Amino acid sequence: MSLEDLKKIPYGKTAIELKNISLAFGGVKALTDVSFEVKKGEVFAIIGPNGAGKSSMLNVINGFYKPTSGTINFAGTDRNEMEPELAAKSGIARTFQNIALFKGMSTLDNLMTGRLLKQKQNFLMQALYLGPVAKEEEEHRERVERVIDFLDLQSIRRTPVGSLPYGLQKRVELGRALAMEPEILLLDEPMAGMNVEEKQDMSRFVLTVNNELKTTIVLIEHDMGVVMDISDRIVVLDYGKKIGSGLPKEIRNNKAVIDAYLGVSDD
Amino acid sequence: MIYKETGQYKSSYKSDHAIFPLLQDKIAFSILMFVAFLIIPFVINSYWEKAILVPFLIFSLAAIGLNILTGYCGQVSLGTGGFMAVGAFSTYKIMTSFPDMNIMIIVLISGLITAAVGILFGLPSLRIKGFYLAVATLASQFFLVWLFNKVPWFYNYSDTGQITVSERTMFSVPVTGATAPPYATYLFCLVLVVLLSFAAKNLIRSKIGRSWMAIRDMDIAAEIIGVPPLKTKLSAFAISSFYIGVAGALYFAVFLGAIEVTESFDIMTISFPVLFMIIIGGLGSMLGSFLGAAFIVTLPIGLKFLMVDMVGLSAVTAKHFEITIWGLLMIVFLIVEPHGLARLWSIAKEKLRRWPFPY
Q1: Could you report the predicted ipTM of this complex, rounded to two decimals?
Q2: Strand partners, B104
Q3: Considering the entire predicted model, what is its pTM?
Q4: Which of A104, A113, A127 lies closest to B225 in CB terms?
């Protein structure tokens, strides 16, 4: 499996397939026998009540958790587990539910870290800062500047991200993921804690990335309005089990999903 | 209005990413280099050499080393004294084994040997962090000092356990040993410090520096974007130890000339002072390393001058006061400006930018 394999897959065909994934921490079952597939180029949403195992699912996809059983088929190759570094190298980028930025570094440097895997010069060359290193830095700076333009981050280029307001930090985190030029972008609650305007901005960014760059997007979100509007397909988890999947309109009328969200009356 | 950056437009990413992007900084740095290379060597005397300039340069190097590890990569280390001892003893062993080798090469090889030792003692950093890692590096401090004390091979079986430097020349001027003139030892250290500082700054503003800072700020996120934690931490340990090893080599060969390991590389004489240097100077700041080293090196001299020469206290009383004042200053510093002298400097620049307008 590699980035090349992933790039070869035609749009609309399966990019990642998760087969019977179970994940347990001791006696706690976070995921039980969950299977679904993500097609290349789509916006795929994972929804479910709190503690349903959505974030665990993302962590399994990019190798941060190792599933107890089940296989992950990534770009045509079966694997039992992923490795974070391998996932990054194969074109998977992600953002976190509770922002995981490098707080001591500026916005620009945070975005530049997204380019680390693509920088090839060794450390002796870096120490001397010879021609090739300077050239490489400039190339990647240019890529990063495009992301800065796209996300409208020009004015905070030099600001340490720790001092930025929440909404902007979320945007910088998306920027860092975009700077990796991923094929698959995993977004863990990109709109949590935002007001309506910020959510609209964020939705627009996500859709633009999907439309223009053809990036596959796997999204966890609680705002049902947003999810129903922007996603192509949805999978619903509850207590670590898959209780439904399909198009947004199918999910909206799914009995099990409605019960999971609204509860079932006793009589 | 004095420190004005308006009107200085950058038209390429390269000039924007320069070490000194502002004209004022360039001028200030040029003046500093001019004074350091072309004026001080002609006016330096033995007192300035031994008491201020050479220790300042050597400790700057050690502070840069520790700052790379602790300030940039976030790995706390209390093993500086032990690593400097590795540099010193490597220098001694190479010196006595290869009598014709150039001192510059000896010093750099000593740095490389220290880097290797640093990697070894950096291995626990994958599993432990923070205070726990500090304790692990403390173990390296005690182990290394013990090793150089207990294994006579390291000090060539001399009766005293001391190691003594032999005379080495650069361009037929002695830079080590008793006959080395002050300007020669000073220039030798200065050249190394300037070159290695630029190298450190270049590392910090390139890929490897950003990987270190990513690991420091959030190791989980760093891993997700493809920064390998072990490799990155070990590279910080290696490069940091290289700088500290070179500092140790200079400390022994150029500055002291003869050392006894338990006394010269003790945790209280090296490890803690160097840690204070980077805390007072500013963690994660190149300028901070220099400011911290200057502060810690000149503080005892300034206090002694104040108390013995101005007030007229006896030297012993002054020494006691010095330790107290030193401790007090540390506490005050940590409360008033935890980000160190480098932050004070950036605040001053901010003020100069606006002066004389109060808004």
Answers
A1: 0.86
A2: none
A3: 0.89
A4: A113
